[in-house]
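Q: Please design a sequence for this.
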């Protein structure tokens, strides 16, 4: 979540600008070129003939706003994003949508002679098999470029035409930087060379094409069919999603064999529906869609991650994950100096030892044995997963597995963006690191911790060194000053889970956000029921029907739960604010967005000033020692976590993209840990080890940088 705060402004802007209204106004700017022969100057007589033709066939699409379908200036006020693209893509659009590359299909449906874009015999196009028709796949060689020449598709003199119109020819693949896979095999849809006039919405060829298509009546009919298809798909998808979410909710709030079977069946049906929808969306030519809302909706529908794999490869992918998770969940070790007590699992035994023990040798034994048992056995499976991830990238129209791993953030330079942000934070982290290293050196002795060397990861109170909160007793700046804890006051004042949620709702309504309504309180689970087993991990649920939103949490009466309640209610507020949008736009703007908003709310709620407003603190603590202890406590939890998350997912990016050979992947991980965090393993490691396998998100293949 940490880095994702930098996405909030851009993500909110993109959501506002990307409001996918399905009625598409059709502006018709003043024509200075022949509408049916772009870039050919017209005489006044020809221009009048074109207008007469428009009158004979009628306007292609009537504007509901009363703008009409004429070609006068009065219709130019229709808002379809025209001004945003007239002089090229905006920065936000480049970063979020990338560029639209031509595809071998020129109509929304199969070509027929009745289509305004039909060009006759399909053999003209070489019979090329377009396995996944999407904007990421262009021609595989420059010999295919005649295929796309809409302006001269029936001409036998394509070469002469192209040489005379090379300056404005969008479909000339030798000179057009917007075309992918022409003598270059490693470009992807997010690549952004920042060259002028490189997109289909520019003032030159692309803009004229847009005018021509928008004035074609049959084009508008095809577009209307597409809009109706998307509405139908959204309604059907919402129903399928509701059925799946309801089954998952029933399982997690009443864990038994029957609800588990129902949840698995519902999930399988929903995945199959997503596969069908994605395949349908991939076979729609997106190069003729000039409304970026429709374009984005189609793109989101056509990308379903591993579920887009062929069934046999998807089965292999799931089998690899299940085998690795089986090894992870089954890992157990023997206790330190107790060889007959060999039933210690990570939760709760080893996690508790790493947090509370201060014995160097016991911590080292626990760390080494657990990483050996949990990680080493799954290395072969993970090497196979690396190969499968290349196929996942391919079916999602991405160059390689590394690009796919950061695909959801819609930036061609996401890895570099994160490094830039980290460089801004690094000076603060280095100060924190130096202070903690000195405190630990004073505690364990200079013979074990060098004053300029990386810190051994096993003495930081956590199996992975990702949070240092558990060694606060050693490193706290002012040991005699208590930290703020309002739990006793909450108990004294008779706080209940319901009251905590009502306070959270009041927090949001006080800043002019929506109330959750009685249905939320009636359906949510706030406490552990006595009559059934519930999975108590806090979570917020959107049932995909625009009105049913719930929270599942086993609330305790303490300060931590108070913050968690506000965090979950932040997710509910997100659902409420975007419930009017199509389903594909009701997810987070990116995988980190929800967590960023929730954590920002949590930080606001946990401040002494807000706690005093709630009556949980009688007076503010003005001494700087209290403030320093409070801020330091947050730093060793939040700031210390940043380089760990960065190392983990940058490692996966390097491995999945092929930048690093998988034969040295364990060594590469520790190089990243030392580079970003100044952390080293407690003992020497080798390529027989696979230390990342001891972290759940690796065998589960779940992104972590969010």
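A: Design:
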């Amino acid at each position: 979540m940490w880095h994702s705060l930098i996405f909030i402004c851009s993500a909110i802007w993109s959501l506002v600008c990307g409001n996918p209204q399905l009625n598409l106004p059709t502006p018709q700017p003043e024509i200075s070129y022949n509408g049916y022969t772009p870039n050919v100057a017209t005489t006044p007589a020809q221009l009048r003939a074109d207008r007469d033709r428009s009158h004979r066939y009628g306007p292609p699409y009537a504007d509901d706003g009363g703008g009409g379908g004429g070609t006068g200036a009065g219709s130019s006020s229709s808002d379809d994003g025209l001004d945003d693209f007239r002089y090229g893509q905006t920065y936000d659009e480049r970063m979020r949508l990338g560029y639209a590359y031509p595809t071998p299909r020129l109509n929304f449906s199969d070509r027929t002679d009745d289509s305004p874009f039909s060009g006759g015999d399909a053999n003209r196009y070489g019979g090329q098999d377009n396995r996944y028709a999407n904007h990421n796949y262009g021609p595989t060689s420059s010999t295919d470029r005649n295929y796309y020449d809409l302006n001269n598709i029936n001409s036998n003199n394509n070469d002469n035409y192209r040489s005379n119109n090379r300056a404005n020819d969008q479909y000339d693949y030798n000179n057009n930087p917007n075309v992918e896979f022409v003598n270059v095999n490693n470009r992807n849809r997010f690549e952004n060379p920042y060259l002028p006039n490189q997109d289909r919405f520019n003032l030159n060829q692309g803009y004229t094409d847009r005018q021509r298509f928008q004035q074609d009546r049959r084009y508008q009919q095809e577009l209307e069919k597409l809009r109706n298809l998307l509405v139908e798909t959204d309604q059907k998808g919402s129903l399928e999603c509701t059925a799946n979410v309801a089954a998952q909710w029933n399982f997690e709030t009443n864990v038994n064999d029957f609800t588990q079977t129902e949840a698995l069946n519902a999930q399988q049906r929903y995945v199959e529906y997503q596969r069908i929808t994605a395949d349908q969306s991939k076979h729609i030519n997106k190069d003729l869609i000039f409304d970026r809302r429709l374009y984005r909706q189609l793109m989101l529908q056509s990308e379903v991650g591993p579920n887009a794999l062929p069934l046999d490869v998807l089965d292999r992918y799931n089998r690899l994950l299940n085998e690795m998770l089986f090894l992870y969940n089954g890992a157990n070790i023997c206790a330190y100096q107790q060889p007959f007590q060999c039933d210690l699992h990570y939760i709760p035994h080893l996690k508790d030892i790493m947090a509370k023990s201060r014995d160097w040798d016991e911590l080292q034994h626990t760390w080494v044995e657990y990483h050996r048992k949990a990680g080493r056995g799954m290395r072969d499976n993970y090497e196979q997963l690396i190969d499968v991830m290349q196929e996942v990238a391919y079916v999602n129209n991405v160059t390689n597995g590394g690009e796919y791993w950061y695909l959801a953030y819609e930036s061609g330079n996401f890895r570099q963006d994160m490094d830039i942000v980290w460089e801004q934070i690094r000076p603060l982290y280095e100060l924190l690191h130096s202070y903690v290293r000195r405190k630990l050196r004073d505690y364990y002795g200079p013979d074990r911790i060098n004053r300029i060397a990386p810190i051994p990861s096993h003495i930081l109170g956590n199996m992975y060194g990702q949070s240092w909160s558990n060694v606060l007793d050693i490193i706290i700046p002012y040991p005699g000053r208590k930290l703020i804890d309002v739990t006793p006051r909450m108990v004294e004042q008779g706080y209940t889970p319901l009251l905590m949620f009502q306070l959270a709702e009041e927090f949001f309504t006080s800043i002019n956000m929506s109330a959750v309504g009685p249905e939320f309180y009636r359906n949510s689970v706030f406490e552990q029921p006595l009559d059934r087993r519930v999975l108590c991990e806090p979570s917020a649920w959107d049932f995909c029907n625009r009105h049913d939103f719930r929270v599942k949490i086993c609330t305790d009466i303490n300060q931590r739960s108070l913050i968690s309640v506000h965090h979950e209610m932040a997710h509910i507020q997100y659902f409420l604010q975007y419930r009017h949008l199509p389903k594909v736009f009701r997810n987070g703007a990116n995988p980190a967005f929800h967590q960023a908003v929730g954590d920002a709310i949590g930080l606001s709620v946990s401040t002494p000033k807000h706690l005093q407003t709630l009556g949980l603190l009688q007076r503010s603590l003005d001494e700087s020692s209290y403030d320093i202890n409070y801020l330091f406590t947050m730093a060793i939890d939040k700031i210390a976590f940043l380089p760990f998350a960065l190392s983990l997912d940058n490692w996966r990016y390097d491995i999945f993209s092929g930048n690093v050979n998988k034969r040295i992947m364990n060594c590469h991980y520790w190089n990243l840990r030392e580079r970003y965090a100044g952390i080293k393993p407690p003992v020497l490691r080798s390529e027989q080890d696979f230390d990342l396998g001891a972290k759940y998100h690796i065998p589960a293949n779940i992104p972590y940088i969010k």
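Q: Thanks. Anything notable?
A: The longest strand covers residues 539-542. The longest helix spans residues 217-252.
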